[in-house]
From TrEMBL:
Belongs to the peptidase A31 family. InterPro entries: Pept_HybD-like_dom_sf, Peptidase_A31. Keywords: Aspartyl protease, Hydrolase, Protease. One of its GO terms (biological process) is proteolysis. This is Hydrogenase maturation protease. It comes from Nonomuraea guangzhouensis. One of its GO terms (molecular function) is peptidase activity. It comes from the Bacteria. PANTHER family: HYDROGENASE 1 MATURATION PROTEASE, HYDROGENASE 2 MATURATION PROTEASE.
């Protein structure tokens, strides 16, 4: 084996899933307070004392352990969880303080999905946009995933107790009809699909990646028109009247599900 081969073999080794800091086991989803040491750049000064969530535990070539974290109150937190720079930071185990709560706050993800250029398919995106402007209980994240199916599947790997998909789905009802569904768990061994944003495909992809949250619900709205995105279709950025009228009831439904 050459030196180059040995380097890449070391880089491909899987690091530990958890690390113990001050007697507390930290892993993906753990809350910590940042306490940077021996550095004084602008990010360290700005982030000192901030609360962050561990995204992953990483190990470098020399065997050093680092925690990849995202800020708990970062509006672009989903970008950090997708491993994009600027929203994801690295600290050693000595530079974080574990936050141990007496009782853990349940974490909830409300995921708006759909294509805003396909008329009623943008229903879930609009619900997420409106809901994100409201004050929400602690532990509730609202994210407009649009058509980013892979990002959503990775988000489901976090320690969410409940995930609520909000989507437009034709089920044979009158346009604007809302339905709360609990999708069946994906079958084991089914090939992974990385295209498409319907909840079943996303859950199948999440299962292949390693985790499905313990409870998943879908708030579905019956569209008035179903567009496929074919080249000969016109772009339509407005919701139909029945679907637009369902936005208010949909927000009430999601709020009630979050609170239960």
């Amino acid at each position: 084996m050459t030196a180059t081969d040995d380097f890449w073999a070391r880089m491909e080794r899987r690091g530990p899933d958890t690390v113990i800091v001050d007697g507390t086991t930290l892993g993906a989803g753990s809350r910590v307070r940042l306490r940077p040491r021996s550095r004084a750049d602008v990010f360290d000064l700005a982030l000192d004392g901030r609360v962050a969530v561990v995204e992953s535990v990483e190990q470098d070539e020399a065997g050093g352990i680092h925690l990849a974290v995202v800020l708990e109150d970062d509006p672009g937190r989903d970008l950090g969880e997708a491993k994009l720079p600027g929203h994801r930071f690295f600290y050693s185990a000595e530079e974080v303080e574990p936050i141990v709560a007496d009782s853990r706050t349940a974490r909830v993800l409300v995921a708006g999905i759909g294509n805003i250029f396909l008329g009623d398919d943008g229903f879930g995106v609009e619900v997420a946009r409106r809901l994100s402007a409201e004050p929400l209980p602690p532990g509730v994240d609202v994210v407009d995933f649009g058509i980013r199916g892979m990002d959503l599947a990775y988000a489901l790997q976090r320690d969410y107790d409940l995930v609520i998909f909000v989507d437009a789905a034709p089920r044979g009802h009158a346009p604007g009809t809302l339905t709360v569904l609990e999708p069946a768990e994906p079958e084991a061994g089914v090939p992974m699909e990385t295209h498409g944003m319907d909840p079943v495909r996303v859950l199948r992809l999440a299962a292949e990646l390693g985790r499905i949250p313990p409870r998943v619900l879908v708030v579905a709205c019956e569209p008035a028109t179903v567009m496929t995105g074919a080249p000969d279709e016109d772009v339509r950025v407005e919701l139909s009247e029945p679907v637009r009228a369902a936005l208010g009831p949909a927000l009430e439904t999601v709020r009630s599900l979050v609170e239960t």
